[in-house]
Design a protein that fits this description.
The complex is a heterodimer.
Chain A: H1 6-27, H2 30-51, H3 53-70, H4 75-89, H5 93-107, H6 110-131, H7 147-169, H8 177-191, E1 200-203, E2 214-217, H9 219-241, H10 246-266, H11 293-299, E3 315-316, E4 319-320, H12 323-346, H13 349-359, H14 361-366, H15 371-397, H16 407-420, H17 425-453, H18 469-483, H19 492-500, H20 513-516
Parallel strand pairs in A: 1-2
Antiparallel strand pairs in A: 3-4
Helix pairs in contact in A: 2-3, 3-4, 4-5, 5-6, 6-12, 7-12, 7-15, 7-16, 7-17, 8-9, 8-10, 8-15, 9-15, 12-15, 13-15, 16-17, 16-18
Chain B: H1 2-16, H2 18-49, H3 56-74, H4 85-112, H5 121-142, E1 147-148, E2 157-161, E3 164-167, H6 168-190, H7 192-202, H8 204-209, H9 214-240, E4 242-243, H10 247-262, H11 267-286, H12 297-311
Antiparallel strand pairs in B: 1-4, 2-3
Helix pairs in contact in B: 1-2, 2-6, 2-9, 2-10, 2-11, 3-4, 3-5, 3-9, 3-10, 4-9, 6-7, 6-9, 7-9, 10-11, 10-12
Classes of the chains: A mainly alpha, B mainly alpha.
Amino acid sequence: MTQPDIQEEGAAEQIGFRNQLRAGWKALPIAQRIAISVGLELALAILFFFVDHSLGYGVAAVSALYWIHRLPPLPWKVAGQVALIAIFAYPVPTLAAGLAIIFAVFWVPQPLRSRVLPVVAILLAVMYPFYQPKMFVMPIFGVWPDIATGVYMLVFVMMAVGLNIVVGYAGLLDLGYVAFYATGAYTAAWFASLQFPKTTFHMGAVGITPNLPGIHVTIWLLLLLGGVITAFFGIMIGLPTLRLRGDYLAIVTLGFGEILPQIARNSDNFLGTGFNLTNGPNGITPLDSMGFGSHIGNFTHGVLPANYLQCCNATYLGHQIQSTDLFFWTAIALLLVTVFCSFRLQFSRLGRAWIAIREDETAAAAMGIPLMRTKTWAYASGAFFGGVAGAFYAVFKSATFPGDFFFNISVFILCMVILGGMGNIWGVIVGGAFLAYLNQEGLANTGAWINANIHFGSHHPNLDVPLYASGIYGVIILVVVLFRPEGMIPSRRRAAELHEGVHDDPLYDTQHAGAEA
Amino acid sequence: MFVVALVAWLVINAVKAPTDFFDIMLIGITTGCVYALIALGYTIVYGILELINFAHGDVFMLGGMFTITYATHFFNLHHGQGMVIIPIIFATLVLSMLSCGILNAVIEKVAYRPLRGKSRLAPLISAIGVSFIIEDVGLAWKGPNYVTSPDVLPHSAVFSIGNVHYDWNKLLVVVITVPVLLLLTWLVQKTRQGKAMRATSQDMDASAMMGINVNRTISFTFLIAGALAGAAGVLYALYVTTVRFDQGFQLGLIAFTAAVLGGIGNLPGAVLGAVLIGLIQAFNEGLNWHAPGSDWTQSIVFTILILILVFRPEGLLGERTPEGG
């Protein structure tokens, strides 16, 4: 009955099986291996071709890409890539252009590539409204996301980057991030709407008549204010709770994440005083518009528009500018600021302190890192970006409702961070963009595709895929945590930690923790 | 100061409408019994693995759905069957406890065991994932609406004091809960398996060296926890008569609060905490004089949770550990 090595046994067995498989494969002659691989890929492509033509082409293209990658360097690879674009992508110009850009970027030699890649990515993102209508139809996922979805994606990526500071850098599991989002959204709503009609206060707001009751502050200030108030709120939550151990902290944040929306829902009669703080379940709507005001608008001849909602006669590159485009570009600017701050924080003194705490709290404290203050700063920074994102999204929707702030949203944002790779900004951006897209359009498109293409004889499944969104996120979380805990694009340091185990907490023993530490 | 105000509030309410007050108290104790069964599941799992099993509440929800399926589809339970309902309820209870127990053990094996010994937050995150998956399993199985069970428990009074009636359906909840609790206490305190559980929770490596099969002990613990959730599901389905796919998470959190209030890892503490939380909820939602009302129940429960975790993490009955909870 004795089992001294509980963990190692299972792992060794698994590795043994994998090794056997690999050894068997390696024993085959090279020609057979290539033949089997190509045959399998072709079979797969043909199979998929019958489900959906473009899917079959896609599989063939990906396997071709793989084989090109295996080719000996330079002339052959270039020829292969050109051939690939010519064969698969030429009939679809946008796909060909996209592939050409990707190949071109990856031909840039390394030290330069790390600089070129972000520039190209930003340029592609900024130009997105111009080429979005011309984009090809993706297999399964259908058409490319529209600009409003783009704004949604950017806002959620921004929140994910903010949460990444708390979860990824400092290693504090926050299950109530939605509370920060809500704080930011309500801050914007209070100071840029008719919510408090007894007060009349105007400060640089655009698109409203003079003497309109209520508080109307310019949105630019409110974005900052939303961040600052939310950061302050994060500190308020953090001070009493951050000395709790990891999982208790998670529960406390979850508690705040549940209480806050309920307060928002019930505070149309604030604490029984009759004061309408949040307008209850009906939410606060509409909010003032964004804009640079008429002075800057006229001075720049409308390049920086006076009011986002009353703009847009201009047509550039065959695309008439919409107000959604303006929000999209603003969101990109905000995201860039967030990502920039996040990068700068990562290797700052504070960022290194966060990582030290994440890796070994006791050792960090022994090295003279003030635990509470450092953790509180992580909370405040994470909260700040959550607040800015919340304020911006409220302005974009021109509304805020307590129903937007469910626990699911917290887990959704957490899922982005986990999927992309905790602690890695690029991973979080990619994971966040993908999941936000899935949530907004992708799942519905995928469901439509499944219902149209998958059938067993005459039986159609008629799945309502978006209904099961949270279950799908659950599967993603589970699969990532079990099989690739470092995420899709891991931060190297974090991956090493996750594989060797973190020693800041004794693994089983809490009773005698003092003895070990 | 706060306690004095609370007591004063309760006394004033009791004096103003005594019948209501005691009726509500009985409701609170009954709900508390259901919470106790769920809270015990949290507590024994936390005791052994230090894992907050987020999926537990959803296992409980599935327990309710199992109950309704078994009772109405297999045993054809319906209103007005007389005494036949007793064996039916008993058989449903056994089946539902079995199903949930096995489900919970499988969850442990698939989602928590591979992560044991890695970072502490990994199993917590995977528990959240499992919770979402189970919720959607319930959604796919029974649809987005409330599933109703036939209201078979008799509502007639067992005994009455003045105008306060103690009904049979409330008694039945207690009659099922108390033996389950006694059985669990006996199991943990007196049996060999219970000894193994206690040893494993104290030191996993040392108990493995002493010849305890740690994996089996943990599986067994999850089996028991799942069975408790299944029992709670039966009681909830029969007493409240409606179950919906998304109820598990909320009720699970309330039960978790109860476990923390009593002192997590502590069996009598979980029961005490659960009855207290049941009473708090019932008083808040039922009393007329200056009660915040059901809109605020969640906020109150979570405020209690936060206050307990911050100021007395060992709970009402727990011991203070070196880590401070």
